């Protein structure tokens, strides 16, 4: 990111999200075919405005997975895949069963899933076991040396995986493998993160709804619909606002293409062919405010659910945080720790850059920071500072006694302000 882009993006942020977040027309999505497409243009056209787009296969043609996981006919290369993964335990969902608003999962040896998949194809894409879908497999974490793909630069400012890699607990990098007919029910991504999904082989159909449209797809009890194509949506008493919903953005994603799914866009996905894909959930300074808003909403829902005990429990606020973390995977305390890791990395990076006469810094904290440059780190710190200010003014956060946290948001905010006075 150059200084001009930094200035432009900061002005957009200051003007308020509603003024620059626009929904794409239901029949149009940008297609990026040039490999030399500029990161700054992507940042301003898609990340900040929260707009979807598709990248052509040119961005994946040199991936090892595209060369080694696929046959010459463009089908999954079961023989090669078995050589790589064999007895590895993998999560497998049954698309024909429903558990709340998702598909129930089991852990199977990889080779057992491949045996099922080959039989499923031989039986005309049907099985008494149902339609099984290998999904949410942390292949990268299990096989870091496999070098199956490289993250495109557009998605390299990835705070989620930066944080979870730092604490060595989890990651949000996944592999999906499924036969024709496998699918994922209607949902939005974790923490209202972005996601990118690359088809290694096969085709997918995506149905996407802009943020806010999901409220028209809830039943009279407030529950989100499981399948946006189900006839039950036509029952006005059960889904009173369905007639107000816009038509979804439909995208057919071909082999090798990458789709960028913006923050808060609910979606439903079908495998039109036997398909393998790689997916990352990620977020950064562009959608940090949406993550914070999501956490506030989740906490509010928990508080409403157990409001009758508010005046009888001294630790009611802490108890709400525990429930919130069990439901979403994060609470306010960890969110503060998350912001500190991100900020500390950028403060260290900018410190290492100071005094450097060349465009490259002497000791970059990470390859991503070195690639994106100091101006991007400044933008990131400004966004963290804005969120810390919101947190410190939030009444629910105040009741957690922020001064007692191991991560002191007020101290971190002061560090960022001092650093900004130095570099700006």
TrEMBL record:
Reaction(s) the record says it catalyses: L-lysyl-[protein] + 2-oxoglutarate + O2 = 4-hydroxy-L-lysyl-[protein] + succinate + CO2
Gene Ontology CC annotations of this record: cytoplasm; nucleus
Keywords attached to this entry: Iron, Metal-binding, Oxidoreductase
Names of the cofactor(s): Fe(2+)
Ranges for domain JmjC: 140-299
Pfam families from the UniProt entry: Cupin_8
GO BP, sorted A to Z: positive regulation of translational termination
GO molecular function: 2-oxoglutarate-dependent dioxygenase activity; catalytic activity, acting on a protein; metal ion binding; sequence-specific DNA binding
Family: Belongs to the JMJD6 family.
Protein name: 2-oxoglutarate and iron-dependent oxygenase JMJD4
Source species of the chain: Paramormyrops kingsleyae
